[in-house]
Amino acid sequence: xxxxxxxxxxxxxxxxxxxxxxxxxxxxxxxxxxxxxxxxxxxxxxxxxxxxxxxxxxxxxxxxxxxxxxxxxxxxxxxxxxxxxxxxxxxxxxxxxxxxxxxxxxxxxxxxxxxxxxxxxxxxxxxxxxxxxxxxxxxxxxxxxxxxxxxxxxxxxxxxxxxxxxxxxxxxxxxxxxxxxxxxxxxxxxxxxxxxxxxxxxxxxxxxxxxxxxxxxxxxxxxxxxxxxxxxxxxxxxxxxxxxxxxxxxxxxxxxxxxxxxxxxxxxxxxxxxxxxxxxxxxxxxxxxxxxxxxxxxxxxxxxxxxxxxxxxxxxxxxxxxxxxxxxxxxxxxxxxxxxxxxxxxxxxxxxxxxxxxxxxxxxxxxxxxxxxxxxxxxxxxxxxxxxxxxxxxxxxxxxxxxxxxxxxxxxxxxxxxxxxxxxxxxxxxxxxxxxxxxxxxxxxxxxxxxxxxxxxxxxxxxxxxxxxxxxxxxxxxx
Length: 479
Hints:
Helices cover 39% and strands 16% of the residues.
């Protein structure tokens, strides 16, 4: 008797929840559902509406998957704005490199000349090759062996003498030739390139002491306002125009040409302070980048500095990676790169190993280097004019005491001006372009478009489902 009573109770509960679902379907904003569940409609009509409902539900699911895919891809957009800093624009570092690597007057200094030791030209390897270099000076012999076309650049440098120098330098495991020493000691001096005229903001005089030597793999360079000296003031420009920036007259010294990049002149790199100087950049309006880190697509690096390279830059990171790759494989470091592992500079005998390691470096993904999240970039516009004219020539000769001809000045003197065209910078800020608010807005919009319901409808379905399950659990007879 009790069993029959329990079955009747369960049937009553099922009938009750069935009627609740039908009542919900008849009044819900989920369009079309009532035409599927109402018994008053024919089976064919109910089936048709079920097909319609499943179709739009499928379409909604498809577009919802696109929305979720877009959200998890973490896209960004760039907001560009013009900013005018209060108190003036921070002046960049300016690096000047002579395209000629070695000075002819130094290359030609003989061992017996008192300048040989006074100028520090007696570098590592000079005494070891003295017997095989014949009438060549140390500088000439090193250039003969150092450069692939040394036999063309250096008189009396032939294949036999070149090979003898190689053999003598390579006869021990010790690296006798130090390329960094060769570049630093036989390269140009900022003192010799300086023509006594240097001004900043037309008020502050500058001198060769304000330029810091920077050794790169392509020779020695000199940086103004480098930022390496923490006690030095940060220079700011409060006026527009090249006349109110850095103004300096330099002597290219074309008569000292020995080994250059197929031309005579200067390479000028405008960059942020205390960053790796990439000689391949050259003459670079001021840009400030604010990027987003992972998981956003820009994937910028939060790293602030690179050991030995100063502030973090992508260029510095890549070159550090290449340096590590070379040092791990060859046991030495490339000239011009920081000595982080107390390794010697690579020499002649390491050239094959270096070439093989760089050949393996065929994919930049080898080095996980991203752009920094905060970066200042300087983009330069360049203009040229003939210098000097007749009046400036007289000024240089009489006031600054340059006892050289007008022809020499026109061939060698460069009047370099670096200043801001506008006292404002372009700020490029990366921000999320598709955040949670965009995701929910798109999901809700498509839900209303395809199904005619809202999140409250979903909550109602969930509540009714939970209530049905709990009710059925309670109504299930035991025993």
